[in-house]
Amino acid sequence: MNFTLYGTEGCHLCDDAAALIVAVSTGLPLNVFQEDIAESEALVEQYGTRIPVLRHDGSGEELDWPFDAGQLRRFLTQTLTQ
Hints:
The protein is of the alpha+beta class. Helix content is 40%, strand content 23%. The protein has helices at 12-25, 41-47, 69-80, and strands at residues 2-7, 31-36, 53-56, 62-64. The longest helix has 14 residues, at 12-25. 20% of the residues are buried.
């Protein structure tokens, strides 16, 4: 399963989200790609005030920051079983 973490360079919240994703997703069958929204006007418009946002690429479901380990685990588990 593929996920995209939308964020931007220099965003400490994005760094925190990425670290939490690494910690929680250990052993799960998923790939997480990081996308810098600064490279696209459309992404800035869509995610500029919401980053970091984790998106399940298959279903389009999104998890907006702030999220904790429990919320992240539920989101990942829920989307992996779809």
